[in-house]
Amino acid sequence: MKFLVVSDIHGSADYTKKALEAYALHKPDQILLLGDILYHGPRNPLPQGYNPQEVVALLNPLADKIIAVRGNCDAEVDQMLLNFDILRDCATLFLGGRRITATHGHLFPLDPPPHSFPGDIYLFGHIHIPVIRQENGITLLNPGSITLPKENSPHTYALLDEHGFTIMTIDHDVYQSLTF
Fold it and tell me: Where residue 149 sits, what CATH number does that domain have?
């Protein structure tokens, strides 16, 4: 099983199209959206290509391929437009004998990550910065933000499979990777 992992789209149709280019290129089995899908939020600048209705039109045809979690900028009104569930705070997945807790990252502290045990993977978004690190036997992974990266990081998405986690730039170059 291979996942395309995308976080913090924030209503940008331009960067949603970039994510879908990655989907066509890498041919994952599923898309994992780590929240903040349609709204840019009051603390963020208006992203390039901001058009939440177009984001809906781009993502809804892939609803059967999408697993999503709720971000701090996602709301019930957004769910009314989307054909896939975005209102759960976290999702538990199993991949290659590993338990993965996927969440946006705004509700739970990272030290220690909740719902995680040594050997598990804690996958989160929210901070808009790519992360690959291990703490207390738990692997912490963040794909960064495809739309609004912070701290001089590039626009990124990630690929996750039983062999590892690879953070890619929107030009499809490897930025960081971890082999399991």
Answer: 3.60.21.10
Q: Tell me the pLDDT of the chain (180 aa) as tens digits.
A: 999 999 999 999 999 999 999 999 999 999 999 999 999 999 999 999 999 999 999 999 999 999 999 999 999 999 999 999 999 999 999 999 999 999 999 998 777 788 789 999 999 999 999 999 999 899 999 999 999 999 999 999 999 999 999 999 999 999 999 999
**Per-position b or e across 52-88, b if 16+ CB within 10 A of its CB:** bebbbebbeeeeebbbbbbbbbbeeebbebbebebee
> Which residue segment(s) compose the domain that 155 sits in?
2-179
- In degrees and rounded to multiples of 5, residue 6 shows phi and psi of -130, 135
Entry pTM: 0.97
> What is the tally of structural domains in the chain?
1
